[in-house]
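User: quick one, fold this
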Amino acid sequence: MEYRNRKNTNCVKWDGLKKEFGEEDLLAMWVADMDFACPDCVTEALKQYMNAPLGYFIPPESYFETVVRWEREHHNYEIEPEWICVTPGVVPAIYWAVRVFTKPEDSVMVSPPVYYPFMHAVEHCEQRKLIKCELKRTGQTYEIDFDRFEEDIVKHNVKLYILCNPHNPIGRVWKREELKRLLDLCKKHHVMVISDEIHQDIINPKLGREKVTAAEVGDYDDMLITMAAASKTFNIAAVQNSFVIIPDKANREKFKQFMENLSLGSGNAFGYIAAEAALRGGEAWLEDVIYGNYEYIRERFKAECPEVKISNLEGTYLMWLDFSAFFDAEEELKEFLQRTCKIAMDYGSWFGAEGYDAFARMNIATSRENVERACDSIICALRERQKAMQQ
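Assistant:
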């Protein structure tokens, strides 16, 4: 993968530092995209399209066929082209689905620590109730507390659950038996499920975990919606193209009607072209994975600063770091990371669970030079902190 300096390119990750963190001179290891050029097949397809008049665009049947093939060959999920609804992103699709499939006073459940737009989608939807069923931490990994999961569904009369598979920010790739147990509980209590699988293609091969699509573990077509995209896989978020897979015709028509009421049209031409090109020709690019950075960071901290606990990274390119041996309050961690180390990360409290003020999410989809710089800065500063505390 070819590293690109993305400063001064209207890049949220680098040029949005001042707005999000109040400082510009930070090493950007926060928002989840890559510092790598997208596959050549994508840029070539877009260049070719740019040579044509940029008039109104009909979504090509080949796009839908390509998504179907990708899901079948890479995720063992057999879908039909007509099941696919195209949206400008998974996040807006989640927002819309909350509105479509719940009504005022309904409860929607999530499992923190989890990608914070899940919670925003509920909080920004009039009169929906947000229920947090927190994951259970066991060592350097996490599990679903199934007893509490069912209790919360019954207690709060939950109507919709938003699943993250693989889970962001903790890096868990849920096992088949975990997904089946979760979905069976939802089916038992008539809970609809949105499965955000946008990180579905980014799985750590060294940990031996198989990515399992939730919809593939049983018959849940009438209650399950799968959301995914080529954007995380191939670093093409800017083209705004995601696919929402809704097997049930009645549910699909509800979702489509909502989109029509918003007068969204059929979507951005560049998104269809880029996503199709990536899914058709980007497989070799994808094999050049970034988990060497994970191994490097894990070994550096294990050898030089083992007090920082790192969750097992089974999937995604987002590491979950526990600094609680050194800090109690989030403000202390912010002061350390931003002022002392000059690094921008997502803070643990953003992910909606209690007790994570000393945690941070690190995006490792960047150059080894940036990763080494971050490790050097953090480890050196923590050593100095330890010396000061011992004096």
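User: anything notable?
Assistant: The longest strand covers residues 158-164.
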